[in-house]
Design a protein that fits this description.
49% of the residues lie in helices and 16% in strands. The N and C termini lie close together (9 Å).
Length: 314
């Protein structure tokens, strides 16, 4: 058995996440309390009792998703005696999930990861005025064909790029609203089965996020970082990284660059990964894995029952 542990990105959050875990394990509550202290905010209350609107705010969703993933890991280690570094061949995360992966691999402390994600969330939210940029999911086209569509929507001040290369036939575009609207209108001419605008507040993973990348570059100067204890497969390269200065460089670049998830999955397969475990909210990444590679066993772990089953299997 060769395991890769992966961590979800924004959009997987839901009100109530972490509640069951905290009710059953004091080790989970420790994580939520530490994140609350780091942010000087009762984020756990927003996660479990807040409104969907409040939780979905980028500045809240990003540290919330990370804290839920890390609570699962803390329970695995403290209550089941299973250390991730002893079981994982690789870790990776989708967009903000890469910060969860870095924390899980010992690159940053939990408190510093929470602070970094609060800064990242606010910086990404503020990089572009609301309504100026957007994103759209293109279904049924290869990455190269989506590139041609993006190019057709670029020019005269309009920007359109591939933000997330999730899997064969599922690529997300990001850019100015004019370009995104045009992509929705003409995608079928390029052979797309569907092109749908996403309910997002900004054009993430596009050159328009450069102001946020600069803020993150400064933020990383304020935290301690260590080399990864588990190889971290980076979003920007789909290749493993150990050295902390390279991980930080990748995380800064990642703000404006394409999330190369399809290639990350291909890398896992090439390296003989047999099992992919999604730790955290939702089932997006395990769902992509199930659709894109039937040979890799994939599972999502977010409930107490799923966590116990994982511990038994490990």
């Amino acid at each position: 058995m060769k395991y890769a542990f992966v961590f979800p990105g924004q959009g997987s959050q839901f009100v109530g996440m972490g509640k069951e875990l905290a009710e059953n394990f004091s080790s989970a509550r420790e994580v939520f309390d530490e994140v609350n202290d780091a942010l000087s905010q009762d984020l756990f209350k927003i996660m479990t009792e807040g409104s969907s609107t409040e939780l979905t705010l980028t500045a809240n969703a990003q540290p919330a998703l990370m804290s839920f993933s890390m609570a699962l890991i803390n329970v695995l280690e403290k209550d089941f005696g299973i250390k991730l570094k002893d079981k994982a061949a690789f870790v990776a995360g989708h967009s903000l999930g890469e910060y969860s992966a870095a924390c899980a691999a010992g690159v940053f402390s939990l408190s510093d990861t929470a602070k970094l994600l609060r800064i990242r969330g606010e910086a990404m939210q503020n990089a572009v005025p609301f309504g100026v940029g957007g994103m759209a999911a293109v279904l049924g086209l290869s990455y190269n064909d989506v590139g041609a569509l993006a190019e057709a929507c670029t020019g005269d001040g309009e920007i359109c790029v591939a933000a997330n290369d999730n899997s064969d036939g599922q690529v997300v575009l990001s850019g100015t609203m004019g370009a995104i609207n045009k992509a929705v209108d003409i995608a079928s001419e390029f052979g797309a089965r569907k092109c749908v605008k996403l309910e997002v507040s900004a054009p993430f993973h596009s050159p328009m996020m450069q102001p946020a990348a600069e803020i993150m570059a400064r933020a990383f100067m304020e935290v301690d970082a260590h080399d990864a204890q588990i190889p971290l497969v980076a979003n920007v390269s789909a290749l493993p990284v150990i050295k902390h200065h390279e991980i930080i460089k990748n995380l800064i670049e990642q703000v404006t660059a394409t999330v190369r998830w399809r290639e990350t999955m291909y890398y896992f397969k090439q390296q003989g990964v047999t099992d992919l475990i999604e730790l955290g909210a939702g089932k997006v990444l395990s769902g992509i894995a199930k659709r894109s590679d039937k040979e890799i066993n994939s599972a999502s772990v977010g409930t107490v029952a799923e966590l116990k089953e994982l511990a038994d299997n490990l």
